[in-house]
Design a protein that fits this description.
The complex is a heterodimer of chains A (115) and B (114). Chain A is mainly β and 115 residues long. Chain A has strands spanning 3-7, 10-14, 19-26, 30-38, 45-51, 56-59, 62-67, 72-77, 86-96, 100-105, 109-114. The radius of gyration of chain A is 14 Å and the shape is globular. The termini of chain A are far apart. By secondary structure, chain B is mainly beta. Chain B has no helices and 11 strands. The termini of chain B are far apart. Classes of the chains: A mainly beta (115), B mainly beta (114). The interface between A and B is medium-sized, with 26 and 25 residues.
Chain lengths: 115, 114
């Protein structure tokens, strides 16, 4: 069964500090891994997409890493800002032969940045 | 360039009733997917529409049905509502077959079943 597990479930960090979120998956055949940011009451917004051959990708202060061998990914937030308070969702895409891709969503990590 | 738009933004229904939610995809996108997101959880895939046909379906009962129109907009219908159907319903659009292109989500419809 395809699964995506994220940790921690939630965390609180002080403004200006760094943090790292984890994502472990058991999805195959692997196509790509995505990180989304979801503000409260809004739809998710794409941060990064990584394919099998990519092991790191950045989007401003957000840096995602991928280890396809261990099936793990991380999202690192540098110099956090109050606007980083949101849920961060890891999504893994499996390639389905006739029907395109199938996405499996993690439960998300809720980040609260305090001043 | 309009993004994904959903209507209504909020809805309150009574158990046993039926509901229709609407979605207009991002300009240029031809594929629409629907997700159910319970409070504090990640989105759960309901189904995907492409070329006016249901292409993929998640583990949702037949009470959940959909439709895609020639202009690529889509509807999600839920019959015989249960209390457990209360959730945020998200619509996402994309361009097939670009498998590495990101999904663009709307801001959802918050459905409350009482």
């Amino acid at each position: 069964k395809n699964q995506v597990e994220q940790s921690p479930q939630s965390l609180i960090i002080l403004e200006g500090k760094n943090c790292t979120l984890q994502c472990n998956y058991t999805v195959s055949p692997f196509s790509n891994l995505r990180w989304y940011k979801q503000d409260t009451g809004r739809g998710p917004v794409s941060l990064t997409i990584m394919t099998f051959s990519e092991n790191t990708k950045s989007n401003g202060r957000y840096t995602a890493t991928l280890d396809a061998d261990t099936k793990q990914s991380s999202l690192h937030i540098t110099a956090s800002q109050l606007s980083d308070s949101a849920s961060y969702i890891c999504v893994v895409s499996a390639r389905i032969k006739a029907a395109g891709n199938k996405l499996t969503f993690g439960g998300g990590t809720r980040v609260l940045v305090k001043p | 360039d309009a993004g994904v738009t959903q209507s209504p933004t909020h809805l309150i229904k009574t158990r046993g009733q039926q509901v229709t939610l609407r979605c207009s995809p991002k300009s240029g996108h031809d594929t629409v997917s629907w997700y159910q997101q319970a409070l504090g959880q990640g989105p759960q895939f309901i189904f995907q529409y492409y070329e006016e046909e249901e292409r993929q379906r998640g583990n949702f009962p037949d009470r959940f049905s959909g439709h895609q129109f020639p202009n690529y907009s889509s509807e999600l219908n839920v019959n015989a509502l249960l209390l457990g159907d209360s959730a945020l319903y998200l619509c996402a659009s994309s361009l097939v077959p670009a498998e590495n292109s990101p999904l663009h989500f709307g801001n959802g419809t918050r459905l409350t079943v009482t």
